[in-house]
Amino acid sequence: KEMSSAQLRQTFLDFWKSKGHDVEPSASLIPKDDPTLLWINSGVATLKKYFDGTVIPKNPRITNAQKSIRTNDIENVGKTARHQTFFEMLGNFSVGDYFKKEVIPWAWELLTDPKWFGFDPERLYMTVYPKDTETYQLWQDVGVKKDHIVLAEDNFWDIGGGPSGPDSEIFYDRGQKYNNVAEDDPENYPGGENERYLEIWNIVFSEFNHLPDGRYVEQPHKNIDTGMGLERVLSIFQDAPTNFETDLFLPMIREAEKLSGKKYGVNKKDDVSFKIIADHARAVTFAIGDGALPSNEGRGYVLRRLIRRAVLNGKKLGIDKPFLFDLVPVVGEIMKSYYPEPLAQKDFISHIIKGEEERFQATLNDGLDILDGRIADLKKAGEKTFPGSDAFKLFDTYGFPLELTVESAADEGLQVDVAGFKAAMQEQKDRARAARKDVNSMGSQNKLLMDIKEESQFTGYDELTTTGAKLT
Ligand code: ATP
Ligand code: MG
Ligand code: MG
Ligand code: MG
């Protein structure tokens, strides 16, 4: 079945409308009255007010397409097929209304009925929390075979207190050609490292109240909260190897090709840069459109980091002038049918991004001066090694990529102590981790809070290091 991103978004919303849901427009990426969250990172994040009872919804059945930012996935962008920092989460929600018996047959209908997605049932796998025998049975009742249901111990949504419960994730088998682990690899299963099985949807059954004394008691009103990644499902409909070869990203990639003179799809390394640029362009365009501005802390720091990573990846493609701002109108055009904001504000957003690109360029030039001076001193002293600690200082203070230092030093016959660089980086990470532990001493494990913990951790411009890429 052929579907554009706009059609897919609308199909999802129409389906849930047909099941009595009201459509809520996407909320801003910047949380309102919620100091626990830096960015809206899921559909439910903007609906907390209904789930915690602060606001009673007109209709307890809600559906939405919600812009989301997850910076904990920054290192995955371009490396996995399925992660962006900015993505849209499609969701349906029951605020104390329907529960498992309704949502499972409906989910199946949406996924498999030719009127809706029309996926081949053979391609679908479900993960279920082992103690949740009811869900296990309900999937079988709609026709899912036992060998398509995977028990998963960690399928339990718990924010450390309050509403919690098991969840069930839906995976799409993209076929053998996408195997990225061996057949006999222990990670070769839906939910494991094999990207052949693409996680497309998470259905959370919030049925317990997690009490301060640790007990889980059944809630009188049970809730449903689901999240489906629009770009992932789109990649299935558009037969794309990754989320990026879809109508949501290709126009940006084409523009980046023009700006760089390089072609997408020729070599893997360049493709990673194209993907990072396309993702980060979207993220910063929307974030600035929603009122965030680059700065040295909090949200602003995230923006700065995203812009700098995009600029560095532009450099890798041979672009040496500000260019990211050129992608703003492209983002605006792609997204305008559901999100008119970026196009309406394109001049302002471009202006902010361009200024930030220019400042970073200047910082890099300052770093270059310092680097040249240091190299000259070392040569005069007859040294052969460029100290790792100096390379790290350049990296940390000027955002100066290790690769650039290595190249410049090599031109002058010096070798950078890369091990020393890594040790300095590790030391800083350890310090950051120690500081984080203090902050989180209340001991709550919060899936949503996980994102925030990551925000304050400077992990550097990951592509310059080999650390950190984790497939979660
Ligand atoms: P993954 O394991 O692939 O990182 P997740 O389990 O962290 O995904 P959930 O928190 O369950 O994701 O979010 C619900 C859905 O949102 C996912 O099933 C996926 O379709 C989508 N999604 C989550 N993170 C991203 C991302 N970084 N980029 C694109 N889509 C995402
Ligand atoms: Mg999930
Ligand atoms: Mg997952
Ligand atoms: Mg994840």
UniProtKB/TrEMBL annotation:
<keyword id="KW-0862">Zinc</keyword>
<feature type="domain" description="Alanyl-transfer RNA synthetases family profile">
    <location>
        <begin position="3"/>
        <end position="472"/>
    </location>
</feature>
<keyword id="KW-0694">RNA-binding</keyword>
<dbReference type="GO" id="GO:0004813">
    <property type="term" value="F:alanine-tRNA ligase activity"/>
</dbReference>
<keyword id="KW-0067">ATP-binding</keyword>
<keyword id="KW-0648">Protein biosynthesis</keyword>
<keyword id="KW-0820">tRNA-binding</keyword>
<dbReference type="GO" id="GO:0005829">
    <property type="term" value="C:cytosol"/>
</dbReference>
<keyword id="KW-0436">Ligase</keyword>
<dbReference type="GO" id="GO:0140096">
    <property type="term" value="F:catalytic activity, acting on a protein"/>
</dbReference>
<dbReference type="GO" id="GO:0008270">
    <property type="term" value="F:zinc ion binding"/>
</dbReference>
<protein>
    <recommendedName>
        <fullName>Alanine--tRNA ligase</fullName>
        <ecNumber>6.1.1.7</ecNumber>
    </recommendedName>
</protein>
<keyword id="KW-0175">Coiled coil</keyword>
<keyword id="KW-0030">Aminoacyl-tRNA synthetase</keyword>
<keyword id="KW-0479">Metal-binding</keyword>
<keyword id="KW-0547">Nucleotide-binding</keyword>
<keyword id="KW-0963">Cytoplasm</keyword>
<dbReference type="GO" id="GO:0005524">
    <property type="term" value="F:ATP binding"/>
</dbReference>
<comment type="similarity">
    <text>Belongs to the class-II aminoacyl-tRNA synthetase family.</text>
</comment>
<dbReference type="GO" id="GO:0000049">
    <property type="term" value="F:tRNA binding"/>
</dbReference>
<dbReference type="GO" id="GO:0016740">
    <property type="term" value="F:transferase activity"/>
</dbReference>
<dbReference type="GO" id="GO:0002161">
    <property type="term" value="F:aminoacyl-tRNA deacylase activity"/>
</dbReference>
<dbReference type="GO" id="GO:0006419">
    <property type="term" value="P:alanyl-tRNA aminoacylation"/>
</dbReference>
<comment type="function">
    <text>Catalyzes the attachment of alanine to tRNA(Ala) in a two-step reaction: alanine is first activated by ATP to form Ala-AMP and then transferred to the acceptor end of tRNA(Ala). Also edits incorrectly charged Ser-tRNA(Ala) and Gly-tRNA(Ala) via its editing domain.</text>
</comment>
